[in-house]
Specification:
Elements lengths: L1 H30 L8 H31 L9 H17 L2 H6 L2 E4 L4 E4 L8
Antiparallel strand pairs: 1-2
Helix pairs in contact: 1-2, 2-3
Length: 126
């Protein structure tokens, strides 16, 4: 139940962030504003964090099911304390990993769509 609650929490955070991005893009489209505001990078950062945490929550559920089936006698891996530890590590990783994206310039503003996007592949000239 704890891992399912973690997935629900990350889905709620991701959905609220996407709603905020949608409202921001709609307001800028209606007002014909084509510049970024100060919270755009923060909204993109929260989107990447919540997406990473969402994938991490599914990974934890898969690992938990693997431990139950393959190692049913190791009860420590099935304890609430261990699950909370793994959930906390997942959230810490989810918050720390995208910080590098902020400083490397991999988050760019797309004027046509009024949102910040993650620049996934970088073409290096030879």
């Amino acid at each position: 139940m704890l891992l399912s609650a973690d997935s629900c929490l990350t889905a709620l955070v991701f959905a609220s962030d996407m709603l905020g991005m949608g409202v921001f893009a709609l307001q800028n489209d209606l007002k014909h504003i084509q510049f970024r505001d100060s919270f755009c990078i923060f909204r993109c950062y929260v989107g990447v964090v919540s997406c990473t945490a969402f994938n991490g929550s599914f990974l934890l559920q898969a690992v938990y099911r693997y431990f139950i089936v393959v190692y049913p006698h190791f009860l420590f891996w099935q304890s609430i304390r261990f699950q909370v530890l793994l959930i906390c590590l997942t959230w810490i990783f989810s918050y720390l990993w995208p910080i590098a994206l902020l400083f490397t310039g991999d988050i760019i503003y797309n004027v046509d769509n009024q949102i910040y996007q993650l620049f996934i592949c970088r073409v290096v000239p030879i």
